[in-house]
Amino acid sequence: MWCEVVSLLRSLGSALVSYFDAKKKRKVAEIYQALNSDPIDVPKLRRMAISKGGLLTDEIRCKVWPKLLSVNTDNLPPLPAGKELRQDNKDYQQVLLDVRRSLRRFPPGMPDDQREGLQEELIDIILHVLKRNPQLHYYQGYHDIVVTFLLVVGDRLATALVEKLSVHHLRDFMYPTMDNTKQILNYLMLIIDQVNPEVHDFIAEVGTIFALSWLITWFGHVLSDFRHVVRLYDFFLACHPLMPIYFAAVIVLHRKQEVLDCECDMASVHHLLCQIPQDLPYESLISKAGEIFVQFPPSKLTKEAAQAERTAASTFKDFELASVQQRPDTVLRQRFRERMRGEERLRGEERTKSILTKPRTNRFVKLAVMGLTVALGAAALAMVKSALEWAPKFQLQIFP
Amino acid sequence: MAAGDAESSLELSLTGSGALPGALPPARSRIFKIIVIGDSNVGKTCLTYRFCAGRFPQRTEATIGVDFRERAVTIDGEHIKIQLWDTAGQERFRKSMVQHYYRNVHAVVFVYDMTNIASFHSLPSWIEECKQHLLANDIPRILVGNKCDLRSAIQVPTDLAQKFADTHSMPLFETSAKNPNDNDHVEAIFMTLAHKLKSHKPLMLSQPPDHDEIHIKPEPKPITSCWC
Ligand SMILES: Nc1nc2c(ncn2[C@@H]2O[C@H](COP(=O)(O)OP(=O)(O)OP(=O)(O)O)[C@@H](O)[C@H]2O)c(=O)[nH]1
Ligand SMILES: [Mg+2]
């Protein structure tokens, strides 16, 4: 009898495994299909990067990340010799200090000489990007982002991706001062206020410094499991540059009970929140961040807070520009507005629930639509164009 | 701010030199908030870790923004929480971020690296910044030269540092977060500060006058020579 139960369970287990295997295989196939279609189906790649499991393997990431950032991988320029870069470089000393101390970012079993080689590459990538873009200023934590790219895609491709990322997504952190960064941190408060005013009022007392390292390293500095880091990077690369701050808000909201139980002072809250639990339910938090983003996009937040438009202006000017021309986005907002009206003014807890119980089906599609408006500077125009090309068709699918 | 790692995590409730085992904690202990500032790489994280965890961290990472460590001590029978705010050394962080950390600070520790003269030359700008942020003028401040274990690499002579400390009316301590024999010393430095705070009336309201009776070895006195 017992044996039968065990064998039943076993076969059930293996059935589950093969179910997930099959699902994963299907996703891999879909991703390759998107990669191989002509032109490459970037919107679909975005959806894949956002949806459950993200891009699954580093091999796929090497192929898809460049597409998400519109980086041409055909003729990557060779890297200049490190020696030249290091001479008379104003950032070299700080970069060196930070990279030397970044041992924890490398896989635990990696032989020392291999790690040291990668650390040298890491320094060179950073200096190279900074040298080519004198408007960018190095910050402690930038190296935590660059190392992620280095470990996943290797130095040559990493250089190209990081450069693109730096002049767009990260540029607000790289001004001579961190004023813009501070303003982005204010978004954290705006988002939390929308979802849960009680938590907002609590946090307002203690400030947002706890989220600084989350934001400017895209969580690379605070998560010890590299798999979680790259999963988040899939998500962030496919979305609007402000998505990391939405994700930060979701983490705080996820832990709201602990937060509210804490003493309301900067130290206690800082301490609590800085210890990110390593077993966070990443997939569901990603979904929540996406839902909140759709419901309270940055433009809406700023409007509601009657904030100066200067806030992180550089980052989402392109976004605003793009979204004006983009029907799906407008439609989305409308839908949510109507929905909100229909549901009456739900406050706090209930409002959160309403966000979290939105139908799952179209979320990734919507997010991918939003993701299209990722600020890509020179590339933005082309991006918007391609968005318009597929959007009408797409829209039919979303809103039958 | 890294998680999941002892080096960067908060050390809660390590008992201090004079904790009474089994004694009930008081309803609410006083908190001394001390901010630790100085250039990148001078060893702020190591020093605060040494005090709160009792050892030199195996490895540290660049501090991003601010980290926070805490230790409970007992001074003259009173339970006190010493909160150390370990700040990022990179200049850009202090420009727009650091005001937050200065809120309600009770004392300031300036740190330089004895093997790096540049970190010593940065001190005036740290002191200036601190002046701008702190409303009260009489907040206790101390100067700490770190890494005195690296004897052959010393670039900042003690007499130079002492002169500087005198000009700014701060006590000077030369120490090492690393040298295992210096555990007591790092401890002594922070405990000295805690004593000073305990008897610092303007900041600590509603405290009866107290007589410091705690004895720490080695005696924490502002020094002119390294205890390595
Ligand atoms: N020999 C020696 N090395 C030390 C000592 N204290 C710190 N170090 C080393 O100095 C380096 C910097 O130490 P940290 O504590 O990370 O420096 P920090 O001041 O916190 O730097 P930031 O976080 O960048 O501002 C590390 O490699 C430490 O191992 C010391 O007393 N002796
Ligand atoms: Mg530090």
UniProtKB/TrEMBL annotation, chain A:
GO terms for cellular component: endoplasmic reticulum membrane; Golgi membrane; nuclear membrane. GO terms for molecular function: GTPase activator activity; small GTPase binding. SUPFAM superfamilies: Ypt/Rab-GAP domain of gyp1p (SSF47923). Gene3D superfamilies: 1.10.8.1310, Ypt/Rab-GAP domain of gyp1p, domain 3 (1.10.472.80). It is found in: Membrane. Residues 55-240 form the Rab-GAP TBC domain. It is a multi-pass membrane protein. The keyword Heme does not apply. This is TBC1 domain family member 20.
Automatic annotation (TrEMBL), chain B:
It is a lipid-anchor. Pfam families: Ras. It is an enzyme of class 3 (hydrolase). GO terms for molecular function: G protein activity; GTP binding. It is found in: Endomembrane system. Its main location: membrane. SUPFAM superfamilies: P-loop containing nucleoside triphosphate hydrolases (SSF52540). It catalyses: GTP + H2O = GDP + phosphate + H(+). Keywords: GTP-binding, Hydrolase, Lipoprotein, Membrane, Methylation, Nucleotide-binding, Prenylation. Its cofactor is Mg(2+). Its EC number is 3.6.5.2. GO terms for biological process: intra-Golgi vesicle-mediated transport; negative regulation of constitutive secretory pathway; protein localization to Golgi apparatus; protein localization to phagophore assembly site; Rab protein signal transduction; regulation of Golgi organization; regulation of retrograde vesicle-mediated transport, Golgi to ER; skeletal system morphogenesis. GO terms for cellular component: Golgi lumen; Golgi membrane; phagophore assembly site membrane. Belongs to the small GTPase superfamily. Rab family. NCBIfam families: small_GTP (TIGR00231). This is small monomeric GTPase. It comes from Taeniopygia guttata.
